[in-house]
């Protein structure tokens, strides 16, 4: 049986009745929906594709996640009477160096795995770099994508995992991971590869982030990985039917989800070995 730790115990600070967490989740999810209306307005209804340049589309889409973070902050402060950083760490402040180090390690691990995949399947990769499109995408993506990834981490591995995990760790791991996966059910790749295969990937990703957060006792490493992963996918290597179309440097010629899952698992192993035994959890 997994024991509770200081990170999960943050849910017991202030007003911690279960109904407050239920209402808080509902309010945050409503905020995500309401603040996503501008994104709907710049999306073609039939194709589901953006009607504006990718960097502008990303900037509009980020508004939804900024609204989610703001709603969570207001509710946490005024209902739970908790400090916002308690969603990230039981310490008095967030160690942003660990967040950045985790992002850097994940980026290197992903690039190593990608190079290995390229050596076996070179026909799956196509050089697609367009400087005029890529440079504004780089600025917007590098600066604002962490808002999207941080919002998801704060909601699922912070707020939700703490709320449930402070009562039962295993149930918290499962529910936070499953709901994280279901949040991606409307992504274009889910319809392309099938619900079951897509959910096995997204739920698995959520479970890895949750386990990493649990064993590290902080959300910092997961924050770094998630930001690095999405920036990599937006700016360096993308694939057809991506939820966020981008003018990346390289585009995969086909969406091979089983192979993508294998690559993800290899990156997870390489990352875990690197941070645990090389950097001693950084």
Automatic annotation (TrEMBL):
<feature type="transmembrane region" description="Helical">
    <location>
        <begin position="133"/>
        <end position="156"/>
    </location>
</feature>
<keyword id="KW-0482">Metalloprotease</keyword>
<keyword id="KW-0378">Hydrolase</keyword>
<feature type="transmembrane region" description="Helical">
    <location>
        <begin position="103"/>
        <end position="121"/>
    </location>
</feature>
<dbReference type="GO" id="GO:0008237">
    <property type="term" value="F:metallopeptidase activity"/>
</dbReference>
<feature type="transmembrane region" description="Helical">
    <location>
        <begin position="193"/>
        <end position="214"/>
    </location>
</feature>
<feature type="transmembrane region" description="Helical">
    <location>
        <begin position="221"/>
        <end position="239"/>
    </location>
</feature>
<keyword id="KW-0645">Protease</keyword>
<protein>
    <submittedName>
        <fullName>CPBP family intramembrane metalloprotease</fullName>
        <ecNumber>3.4.-.-</ecNumber>
    </submittedName>
</protein>
<feature type="domain" description="CAAX prenyl protease 2/Lysostaphin resistance protein A-like">
    <location>
        <begin position="133"/>
        <end position="231"/>
    </location>
</feature>
<dbReference type="InterPro" id="IPR003675">
    <property type="entry name" value="Rce1/LyrA-like_dom"/>
</dbReference>
<feature type="transmembrane region" description="Helical">
    <location>
        <begin position="21"/>
        <end position="42"/>
    </location>
</feature>
<keyword id="KW-0472">Membrane</keyword>
<keyword id="KW-0812">Transmembrane</keyword>
<feature type="transmembrane region" description="Helical">
    <location>
        <begin position="168"/>
        <end position="187"/>
    </location>
</feature>
<feature type="transmembrane region" description="Helical">
    <location>
        <begin position="259"/>
        <end position="279"/>
    </location>
</feature>
<feature type="transmembrane region" description="Helical">
    <location>
        <begin position="54"/>
        <end position="76"/>
    </location>
</feature>
<dbReference type="Pfam" id="PF02517">
    <property type="entry name" value="Rce1-like"/>
</dbReference>
<dbReference type="InterPro" id="IPR052710">
    <property type="entry name" value="CAAX_protease"/>
</dbReference>
<keyword id="KW-1133">Transmembrane helix</keyword>
